[in-house]
Every structure is written in C-alpha cells, then in structure tokens.
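Journal club prep, notes for RB
We'll compare a predicted complex against what the paper describes. Inputs for the iron/sulfur cluster case:
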Amino acid sequence: MQSSLVSRILEDRSRSSKPTGEWRKLMPKDSALVFNIQHYSLHDGPGIRTIVFLKGCPLRCPWCSNPESQRFGPEVSYVADKCIAGMGCDRCALACPGAVRTAPGTDTITLDHERLDRLDLNEITAFAKTCPSKALTLEGRPMRVDEILDVVERDEVFFDRSGGGLTVSGGEPLSHRTFLTSLLAGAHDRGISTAIETCGYAPYASLASAAEHLDYVLFDIKSMNDAKHREWTGFGNTRILDNFRRLCADHPEIPKLVRTPIIPGFNDSREDVAAILDFLHGLGGADANITYQPLRYHRFGEGKYHALGRNYPMGSVKLDDDLFNAIRDDALASGLAAEALYHD
Ligand code: SF4
Ligand code: SF4
C-alpha cells in the first residue's frame, strides 16, 4: 500500500474511533441509534425494501459510503452549501459557542467536532435542531423497535406486491444483538419479511439469534487475505469467514447473497475474487443457497466524510472498468452470479 494512503487511513481510523460523549446514559430503554430509514430500495434484498440503518460498526473500511454509520455515538454533520451564516444566521454558535468557529468574510462556519463529541445525547440533539436550513444534521437518533416498525409497516403495500420487506443495515446491525433480534422478530410478528446487510464481524451468537428471524442475508466478504483485510479494515477476516461457514451449516434454508466491493489496490484482481468464489463453492455454492455479486467501487461517500469534518481516505483512486468487467464475467461464469448481475 502507498505510504500516503496508509497515513490517510490511519488518520481517519483514529479520528473515527474516538468515543463520543456519555450518550449511552441518556438512551431511552430498549432503543438503538438510527441514522436513516430509506424507503423503496431495489438493491438490498428481494423486491422493494425499506432499509433501517443502525449506527456503529467495528470495521473502518476507507471506502465506506456511509461514514456516518461507523461511530457508535451520535454525531453532527455539516453541509456548507445549505448554511445561511452569510445571511446573518448564528443560531448554532449561540447554542454552543465553543463548538462553532466563524471567520470574518466567509459565509460558512467550522465545527469543532472534538467539542461536539463531549456533548451528551440531549445536548447534541438540541444543537443540531437549532439549524433552520438543514445545514446541520443529527446522525443517530434513538428509536424503539415499535417506532421503527410503525414506520416500516407503512410500506407494506409495496412489500406485498414485490416480495420485499425490511432490511436492517448499518453500520453493523449484528453489533446490536438484543435490539436486532427484537426488531426482526417484531417484523415477522407483523408479517413483514426480513433481511440484514452484514460485514460478518460479530460474535456468532449474534448472527445465530438474528438468523432465527431472517428470510435473507446479504453478507460482505471483502477478501480471503487475512493480513490485507486487517491492514485495510482494522480487523482480519477469520471471524467473518467462520461466521459465514457456520451460517451455511446451521441455516442452509436461508438465501445468502455474498457481496464484494471491488476496491482499487485492495482486492481489484481476478485472483482475489477467484479465491472468494472457491471458498463459496467449497461451502456448497448454489446448492447451499449462496449467490454472489461483485460491487463496483464508487465514491458516493466522499461528501459525507467532509460533512463530518474528515478527509476521504481513498484519495483519487479509480477502478479500472475493464478489470471490473472481467471480474463480473468471472462471477457470471461461476454459476453463483446473483440475479442482478444478469441485468447489470
Ligand atoms: S463494514 Fe460496511 S459499514 Fe462498516 S466500515 Fe466497512 S463499509 Fe462501512
Ligand atoms: S444554524 Fe445552520 S444555517 Fe445557521 S450558521 Fe449554523 S449551520 Fe449555518
């Protein structure tokens, strides 16, 4: 790995791993932090899905398209284009003077994220709410299972027509074992089909208890190379691969879509993907209800890093289109290709 990339990754990992304030003390009972609920999604499980994003992930992938998902506490993001400081607004500065810097002659503000990190849940929520123009967004608000399901259930007509349902994503949903299990069980009680999107890094007990209430699993396998996995994401792949093996053994009935984001410099070779396909074939492949999809690297998360006061660790790297197409063809030839690949 280039030394400049290594230092960017380490800098971002250090910034994004600092604990936020004493937010857990003020969390309502039986709630988790949700940073988004996305409706009408077509790419995160069968049919039309409603995706619930839970905050917090143990990994730190530098290409993460949802950097606001990574830390376990609440945060505030700031989009300068929406800020009306130039028209005289100073509400956020009045609400928390120590966390906002203004410079004469500029139309924007700068947030002191280290200061914001020390606010408790109520304080940071109130701070974000002061903004009249949505330049400030609170990333992570506590929701209970029934509150989430009430929102999800409004999309039931789409689920019924399309074979869709609820997908719980993150962050890493398995980091919220008890809450996740209740959410999935509650969805089933309401007749809603369920899926999770997971990086697989969690105690197997968390996956096992979720699996009792799952109809579909989207499971990321990023690399078969343990050292590379550790270097790029902060953790090796042993636990992830073991979890997937055990899931296949314990729940052959659950369809599993394995996905690999193809990242320049990390796993962008046909050999990397061939190793993953070999692993999946070794577990039974299509007979074990496994399908596979390589995902094209994109930079959709870049603006979100800036909104959180972070630099985008991947810099300006680009994925070679021809190489991705060859990887995609290998996936098609493997007999494990996900349906979506045939229409890509
Ligand atoms: S596992 Fe997913 S959510 Fe977690 S850091 Fe990586 S890309 Fe982001
Ligand atoms: S409250 Fe919002 S619009 Fe006003 S200065 Fe702060 S960020 Fe900008």
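Talking point for the session: Residues 36 and 169 are 10 Å apart (CA to CA).
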